[in-house]
Amino acid sequence: MEKLVACVQKRPDALCRLICFPWSGGGTSYFAEWGKLFNNSIEVFCIRLPGRETRLGEPFAKDMASVVNEVTSVLLKELKEKPFAFFGHSLGTYTSFAVALHLKEKYGLEPVHLFMSAAHAPNSAALVPLKNTVVPDDNNEFLACMGILGGNYELPRNENLRRNIALTSREDIRLFQTFSFEKAEMNIPFSCDVTYFSASDDKMYDVQGWRELTSGDTSFYELPGDHFYLLKPDNESFLIKHITRCIENASL
C-alpha cells in the first residue's frame, strides 16, 4: 500500500479516513501534510499515481480504468473496515469520482462525503471540448496552453523542473481525457452528501450539475483566489475546518 498511498500521520483509531486525489502533475507532498492538520478522528491518505516520486520508474497510467482498478484493489480492505470520504482537486475530482462510482457499482461501498474542487461536474457538457483538446508534445507549447485546461499557476524558472512538470502534467491530462461518465436518465449514482469548492478567479464551472449526482445534500463554496486557491493558508484552514465538521456530523 505504501507505493500507492502517502500517509504521514498514521491514526489507526481514527473514525474515518479522508482519501485525497491530487491535481494534474501533482504528487503527494501537499495533501499528505494534511494528515498533521486534522484531529485524531480523521486519518489522511493521499493517492500517488505512477510516474512520480517513489513511482518515478513506473510508466504513467494510460487510462482512468487502470487507476480505478489499482486504487480499488489496493485499498479495498481499508475501505471496508471503516468509513471514508474523498477529496479531489481538479484532475483529482475526476479520479476520485471514478473510483467512488466503481466502489458503489461493484462493491456497494460509498463515501460518507464527496469533497470536490475546481472541476466541471462529471455530467457537464463543458467536459467535451476539454476531452477533445489536442495536447501538444512540445513542452513550451504545452505549458502555454495549460491555462486552457485549468492549470494557471506560476511555473518554476528552472528548466529541468519545467520539463518534469510538463511531462507529468501532459500525461495526467491525457489520463483525464480517458475519463468517461454518462448519467442514466433515472439513475442517481450516490446518496452521500457532496460539497463543491471553487475559486473566485477560476473559470466558471457547471457546479449545479453535482445536484443531479446524489440524493444527499449538496453544498457550494466559493473561496478567494485562482485555480490553486487551496494553497492559500486562510483557504486551507477553511477547508480543514469544514471537512472536519462534515465528517464528524456524518453518521459514522
From TrEMBL:
Keyword flag Secreted: no
Domain of life: Eukaryota
UniProt catalytic activity: (9Z)-octadecenoyl-[ACP] + H2O = (9Z)-octadecenoate + holo-[ACP] + H(+)
Gene Ontology biological process terms from the UniProt entry: medium-chain fatty acid biosynthetic process
PANTHER family the UniProt entry points to: S-ACYL FATTY ACID SYNTHASE THIOESTERASE, MEDIUM CHAIN, THIOESTERASE
Alphabetic keyword roster: Fatty acid biosynthesis, Fatty acid metabolism, Hydrolase, Lipid biosynthesis, Lipid metabolism
SUPFAM superfamilies: alpha/beta-Hydrolases
Coiled coil: none
Top EC class, one word: hydrolase
UniProt GO MF annotations: fatty acyl-[ACP] hydrolase activity
InterPro entries xrefs: AB_hydrolase_fold, TEII, Thioesterase
The family this protein is said to belong to: Belongs to the thioesterase family.
EC number(s) recorded for this UniProt protein: 3.1.2.14
Domain Thioesterase: 17-244
Protein known as: S-acyl fatty acid synthase thioesterase, medium chain
